[in-house]
Design a protein that fits this description.
9 helices
Length: 276
């Protein structure tokens, strides 16, 4: 018999996954007018993915030669081909994830803007009128925050990648399991971050909120992790992920912590109660 806590975790995990797909429908069909805010960032994302993809293709042979040159003995060649295959796959996945992280940095101001528009449509937050001067000033802050997030992700992703290259089989398993597990959570955090920051949550409070709702964020982040492993799929899914993360966050009822904000009135509608 599954304990109540485990059932709740599974349910919230499914809610997080559902929020990802709900966000895709939200932007593509329900509110397609939001797509006009996505043209510039999607163009930037395409350029980043193509540029890093070309760099990967032209440098993967040098990487293999640097780690382990192709042996002459047939027995060692069989093992080398297995090593080369796994290394190429992991390196390709890491290249795509790196492209995704750079994409998130470049698109940080547009993420916040799109998230605001979703909340404006839903009526879950009072959004100030758009102002270009404020947008430009806020853009630098958003880029800096996303850059620091990328460094934090690379701080644990890089050692895992190196382990996967040094230790055959075991290293690859560790990289795939631990890397995917942690990346799913942090991607989930990324996509609720803008709505929490908009409500006056400090970085520490956002992290505490994320840990409180880790199952839902991990379910959402898992979907985006899988999408980010497919070249350009992350760019295509990005607008819906921003919308889905915003809807997920508002469905979790965060308080307004701004000075002068309503500290006692969280959003009342739950994720399943909100109208499609």
């Amino acid at each position: 018999m599954i304990p109540g806590a485990a059932k709740s975790a599974v349910k919230t995990f499914r809610d997080g996954m559902a929020a990802f797909f709900k966000g895709q429908r939200y932007v593509i069909s329900t509110h397609s007018e939001l797509l006009k805010y996505c043209l510039i960032p999607m163009t930037l994302g395409t350029v980043v993915f193509v540029a890093l993809g070309v760099a990967f293709v032209f440098n993967i042979d040098d990487l293999l030669q640097l780690i382990w040159g192709k042996p002459t003995h047939i027995a060692w060649q069989i093992l080398w081909y297995v090593f080369a295959t796994v290394t190429v796959v992991l390196s390709a996945g890491t290249t795509v994830l790196l492209a995704y992280l750079i994409f998130m940095i470049l698109c940080a101001p547009f993420n916040d803007l799109l998230s605001e528009k979703v909340e404006e449509i839903e009526g879950t937050f009072t959004v100030s009128p758009f102002d270009w001067s404020f947008f430009v000033r806020d853009a630098w802050h958003s880029v800096a925050v996303e850059f620091m997030k990328m460094l934090q992700k690379l701080a644990w992703l890089t050692p895992l990648y190196l382990i996967s290259l040094i230790i055959p089989v075991v290293g690859q398993i560790v990289y795939a399991v631990i890397g995917g597990y942690k990346m799913s959570f942090w991607l989930g955090v990324d996509y609720v971050d803008w709505a929490l920051a908009r409500r006056g949550y400090t970085a520490k409070e956002r992290l505490l909120f994320a840990r409180e709702h880790r199952s839902a964020l991990r379910g959402f982040g898992l979907m985006m992790t899988l999408a980010s492993l497919i070249p350009l799929c992350a760019v295509i899914c990005w607008p819906g992920a921003v919308a889905g993360g915003t809807l997920l966050c508002t469905g979790l009822s965060p308080l307004d912590r701004r000075k002068g904000g309503d500290h006692a009135a969280p959003v009342e509608l739950g994720l399943e109660e909100r109208k499609n």
